[in-house]
Write a structure and sequence with these properties.
pyruvate-formate lyase- activating enzyme; 2 domains; three-stranded antiparallel beta sheet; alpha/beta; nine-stranded mixed beta sheet; Arc Repressor Mutant, subunit A
């Protein structure tokens, strides 16, 4: 089959969600959202699914400098006196959630995200995790992970968190080309990356992840080749190979460079293709829309068992129904509804002073939306459109599926439609077939480009 990739890029390089939720945040019905309804949904969900164990996402927003590519909610500071009051606020929020649940929570997963979690001292992180774990019951093979910056993650950070139960660490590498690093204000020598990786393995971490990004300013194939050379040398267990999301209307730091400095759509696709092929040749399994893992990593095993899940933390091996977000701007998913915390440190702290769970917007899902979410999750996690899903799809969706078969994105197999290696590069677009809000989202320019 002759594949015209230039035509595919022209067709599918549209603003499209990453589908860490459905409905996605721009489509939330915030007007009818109330904190009371959200907490009712949490209690109902915990009654039904709490025995499976809940996930905790804890947002630590502080960074000592701004990485201009970053789309996360951050607070730039070199004043480490902010650590103690913020840790205290997180623990207060956690204890308020415990009161809502009404019993010792069963805990399955913790992820520390940022910001830069390793901005905080090992002692402060230990205090946070120790109190949360002491007030919970851990369930089964619990999974604790954190994000670390290679420049400031110390051996003490790694050892302290390992002793608290952490077994996975994710390092934000992004790219090793010096020109790219300077443009995005994230200069980190190869020696630092090598050092933290070796420390993690020496201490006993079972999974080391690298975050890599393609489509950054001044990025080219030569630079990606050097980055992939290091990946092959150090062989992390997992890799997230993300498409850079250029949304300067939402993240002013991205105005530090112009759109002319970014790879054009075809160049960006070439970066994606080269990186993907290098990783697969090195023995990594392609997972979902942007992840890779070695065959013996838990993420690969979850794919093979059919238990891979996706939520606001991305792909996870924990298919639980409840994710509680603690900290500034964190998002919670309690199966029947979503809620997001206040976005500034000051507003977040003020809400907790008033002993109020600091959510300010959210969405209560209809039954139809819950079913749509399940359909999108199947496509995103299994890279397939099962026969049952195809049969119940609208005619317009079926026609688009047929067209994707002719384009080489899907292949028909015994009534199912499997996503090809080429199609995996357009997985967000394939998921969007089942998103009834997608047309409006494109018009609002609410998301980054699909390619």
């Amino acid at each position: 089959m002759q594949i015209n990739e230039k035509a595919l890029i022209a067709k599918y390089d549209l603003p499209v969600p990453r589908y860490t939720s459905f409905p996605t945040v721009p489509d939330w019905d915030n007007e009818s959202f109330t904190r009371e309804k959200y907490l009712e949904d949490l209690k109902l969900a915990y009654t039904q699914f709490g025995h499976e164990g809940i996930s905790l996402y804890i947002h630590l927003p502080y960074c000592e400098s701004l990485c201009t590519y970053c789309g996360c909610n951050t607070r730039i500071s070199i004043n480490h006196a902010v650590e103690t009051p913020y840790i205290s606020a997180l623990l207060k929020e956690w204890h308020m959630y415990k009161e809502v649940i009404g019993e010792r929570p069963k805990l399955k997963e913790i992820h520390l995200g940022g910001g830069t979690p390793t901005f905080f001292s090992p002692d402060n992180l230990k205090e946070l995790i120790t109190e949360i774990v002491a007030s919970s019951d851990l369930v089964g093979d619990f999974d604790f992970s954190f994000e670390g910056h290679p420049n400031n993650t110390t051996k003490e950070h790694l050892k302290t968190l390992f002793d608290c139960g952490f077994s996975r660490v994710s390092f934000g590498i992004q790219d090793l080309d010096e020109k790219v690093q300077k443009a995005i204000n994230r200069v980190q020598p190869v020696e630092n990356v090598r050092q933290v990786t070796e420390w993690a393995r020496e201490i006993g971490y079972t999974s080391v992840n690298y975050d890599l990004i393609y489509g950054l300013p001044f990025q080219n194939l030569k630079g990606i080749e050097r980055t992939m050379d290091l990946v092959e040398e150090l062989r992390p267990d997992r890799i997230a190979y993300y498409s850079y999301a250029h949304v300067p209307w939402k993240r002013p730091g991205q105005r530090a460079y112009s759109e002319q400095d970014l790879p054009a759509a075809e160049e960006k696709r070439a970066l994606n293709k080269y990186g993907t092929e290098r990783l697969q040749e090195a023995g990594y399994q392609s997972i979902g829309m942007d992840h890779f893992a070695l065959p013996d990593d838990e993420l690969s095993l979850a794919v093979n068992k059919g238990s891979l899940h996706r939520n606001f933390m991305g792909y996870t091996t924990n298919p639980g129904k409840i994710l509680i977000g603690l900290g500034v701007s964190s998002i919670s998913d309690v199966h029947y509804g979503y809620a997001q915390n206040l976005k500034t440190v000051e507003a977040y702290m003020d809400s907790l002073k008033e002993y109020t769970i600091p959510v300010f917007k959210g969405h209560r899902l209809t039954q139809e939306e819950i079913e749509t979410r399940e359909r999108i999750l199947i496509v995103a996690c299994h890279k397939a459109i099962p026969k049952e899903l195809f049969i119940t799809s609208e005619e317009s969706v079926k026609n688009e599926i047929f067209e994707m078969v002719t384009e080489g994105l899907l292949i028909a197999q015994e009534g199912d439609y499997l996503i090809t290696n080429l199609g995996a590069q357009f997985l967000r677009n394939i998921c969007s077939l089942f998103d009834p809000y997608q047309k409006l989202q494109r018009e609002q320019k609410a998301f980054s480009q699909g390619v």
